[in-house]
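Ops channel
N.P.: pipeline sanity check, posting one input/output pair.
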């Protein structure tokens, strides 16, 4: 995909199911207008091509190649499609593990699929991963440690609900954390959200599954999430917004001070 290099982004939505909104194309235009770098994650490999087409010409919209753990029971046979498409994807998501009661019957198959995805990403190198870990944080971290051996891929833990010790281990493994408004609203999450290192934070909506003002959250709600998170951490919201875009630039490139505009161009889905 080719696109104009964007001017400096103002906001980050690093996990959004853009293709599940009825007005998805309008939403993509909103992201460009408001300078919101938005990762449109997919839940099956077959959705990837359509999402790439939707994002064509919109430099702020990135596309992830996904195989959602909650769909593995029905879609595991799409894993060869995933592996075939991986060379075209800079971003991978949504992937991961879900040990919740509704999906636990497929957990061993989820682990098999997740392991193969991680190994393939490690072999290709340079992938940015958005990872689901419901009731499975320790197992996800174990798989990352075992299979991302070359340390060129960057894991981002989407909607992280682990313990402080698990967060410490995740940080040691090079993980970032994408936080949404539902997490900030949850009092039981506050101690963890205050403790996470500021240079590993990103924001997300996980729309349309998270609600904001009694409607599906949209990338344009990210400023409100940043304001709430800044208040929780006792810092200025403008400083936090700048830090999050700086974190995105650092995540995309290990080179200190690398231009985020240049990195977005390099890491746009091709």
């Amino acid at each position: 995909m080719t696109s104009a290099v964007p001017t400096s982004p103002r906001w980050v939505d690093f996990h959004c199911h853009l293709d599940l909104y009825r007005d998805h194309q309008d939403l993509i235009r909103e992201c460009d207008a408001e300078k919101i770098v938005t990762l449109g994650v997919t839940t099956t490999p077959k959705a990837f091509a359509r999402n790439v087409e939707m994002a064509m010409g919109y430099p702020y919209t990135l596309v992830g190649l996904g195989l959602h753990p909650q769909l593995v029971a029905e879609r595991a046979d799409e894993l060869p499609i995933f592996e075939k498409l991986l060379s075209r994807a800079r971003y991978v998501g949504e992937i991961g593990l879900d040990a919740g009661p509704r999906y636990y019957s497929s957990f061993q198959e989820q682990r098999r699929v997740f392991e193969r995805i991680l190994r393939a990403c490690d072999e290709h190198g340079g992938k940015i991963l958005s990872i689901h870990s419901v009731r499975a944080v320790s197992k996800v971290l174990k798989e990352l440690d075992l299979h991302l051996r070359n340390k060129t891929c960057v894991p981002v833990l989407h909607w992280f609900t682990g313990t402080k010790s698990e967060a410490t281990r995740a940080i040691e493994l090079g993980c970032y954390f994408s936080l949404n408004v539902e997490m900030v609203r949850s009092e039981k999450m506050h101690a963890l959200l205050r403790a996470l290192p500021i240079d590993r934070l990103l924001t997300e909506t996980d729309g349309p599954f998270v609600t904001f003002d009694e409607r599906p959250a949209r990338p344009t709600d990210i400023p409100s999430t940043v304001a709430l998170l800044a208040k929780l951490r006792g810092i200025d919201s403008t400083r936090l917004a700048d830090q999050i875009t700086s974190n995105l630039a650092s995540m995309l490139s290990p080179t200190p001070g690398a231009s985020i505009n240049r990195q977005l161009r390099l890491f746009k889905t091709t």
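N.P.: looks fine end to end. The chain is about 40% helix and 15% strand.
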